[in-house]
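Researcher: Next sequence.
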Amino acid sequence: MLQIHPQARTTPAVRADIARSSESTSVLARRYGISEETVRKWRRRGSDACQDRSSRPRKLAWKASEEERAIVCQLRRSTGFGLDDLTFVVRHFLPHLNRDNIWRILKDAGLNRLPPAPKTGPLRGQGTFRDYDPGYVHIDVKHLPKLQTADGERRKRFLYVAIDRCSRSVHLAVYDAENADNSVDFLKAVKTAFPFRITHILTDRGSCFTADAFEKACHDMGIDRRRTK
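Model: Next structure:
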């Protein structure tokens, strides 16, 4: 279907006549009630290019900052959540991003389609799955790329992510360093954020989680501390 810009003063047929005409620019401008610059524009384009060009921006502005886009991508990789579940989690921390914004971020990073889950477990009907009660929480740290902050400085930051195995509840926070103090602070934030008692914490063997301060915090909160192999 032929589409003409609503503010256009000429039709494709008139533009083709202008491009083919040998009359002066001023004569054509008076005849069609348009400016001389418009006449020159259609003459430059020629009779074969008389359709309106798209007014869509060639490059759409991002609604999310570079760091926010990195956080969305890391959450996708860490949780494997579908778009709707991921949107629900992200909007809790970044409420200005909607479903379309998040899909565009994933699309740009090549994460809009989740890879098929590897078939490494037992055959169907030959294995059992352990059930977990709410409170078995896995905490991990993701290294964000070196990004520019609001003050113009470029530095590396760290995304702490906590996921409950039963409810799939998620809590996250960004810190400037990966150390024991921030790990303890994040653990306290997770304990406050989740609406159930945390019974187990599963982490890797990173130095921020094997530090005495983190071990003591788990003990004081009555949390069973476990590590991945």
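Model: The first helix runs from residue 12 to 20. The chain has a mean pLDDT of 81.
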